[in-house]
Amino acid sequence: MKKEEAIVKASSDEPITKHRKKSRKLLFQELYAMSYNKFDAQLFKESFFDNVFTFNQDEEYINEMKKIITFYEKFFIYIIKEYTPKFKIETMSKSYILPIYMWLAEMFYLTEEIPAKVSINEAVEMAKVYWDDSSKKIVNWVLNKVFQNYDELNKKREEEFKEITETCFKN
User: Fold this and answer.
1) Is the pLDDT of residue 142 over 60?
2) What is the chain's mean pLDDT, rounded?
3) pLDDT > 90 fraction of the chain, expressed in percent and rounded
4) CB 76 within 8 A of CB 104
5) What's the rounded Cα separation, in Å, for the pair 158 and 171?
6) How far apart are CA 98 and CA 24, in angstroms?
7) Which DSSP category does 165 fall into?
8) By CB distance 3.0 to 4.6 Å, which of 18, 24, 36, 116 could disulfide with 58?
9) Do 26 and 66 touch, CB atoms closer than 8 A?
10) Count of CB atoms situated within 10 Å of the CB of 122
11) Dist CA 107 CA 125 (whole Å)
């Protein structure tokens, strides 16, 4: 079985495969929508997908990740500012920021352990799929720097970062 798939039981005793890779893409799309408008998950799924999916979403993963990302966003912004001093977070493209947020959430806070290299590859792939090569390079640069400095950053992750007032989200 692939690492990004999880098996759950359906009510009919047939296993249903949840696709992590596709769930990550859906999460990215939800986060992107959240960054521009007040967000309603049900309305989002009905509007864009007619609430019909060709895969089984990993709702537990998606919901946990959204909670982590919105709650710890200041820590994530601190990291982005630390490792991309030439960029201003206020003007940086969401296509650069959101894959980084997702990887940082998986790396520092997600209850399920996902190997760091798997998360990095997925984040870089997502940046490449949704935007251009420059976004892939920036995402890869930041994530590899964070990976190299993980222990130091892990000590800082519970700070409040009150000086950070920026946010990506409208909610």
Assistant:
1) yes
2) 78
3) 16
4) yes
5) 23
6) 11
7) -
8) 18
9) no
10) 21
11) 17
CB neighbour class for 132 (10 Å; exposed up to 12, middle 13-18, buried from 19): exposed
In the chain, % of residues over pLDDT 70: 82
What are the structure tokens assigned to 128, written together?
Answer: 């490449």
pLDDT digits (tens, 9 = 90+) for 96-128: 788 889 999 999 998 888 888 888 888 888 877
Nearest C-alpha neighbor of 143 from the set 98, 92, 113: 98
- In 3D space, the residue among 53, 119, 146, 130 whose CA is nearest the CA of residue 95 turns out to be 130
Pure H helices in 1-83:
20-34, 41-49, 59-71, 73-83
In this structure, the number of other CB atoms found within 10 A of the CB of residue 81 comes to 15
Euclidean distance between CA atoms 85 and 82, whole angstroms: 6
As a whole number of angstroms, the distance between CA 150 and CA 132 comes to 27
For 101, left (φ over 0), alpha (ψ -120 to 50), or beta? Answer: alpha
Quote the pLDDT of residue 4: 41
Q: Which helix (H) or strand (E) holds 154?
A: helix 150-156
Nearest partner of 99 among 74, 79, 119, 75, judged by Cα: 119
Banded pLDDT at 135 (limits 50, 70, 90): confident
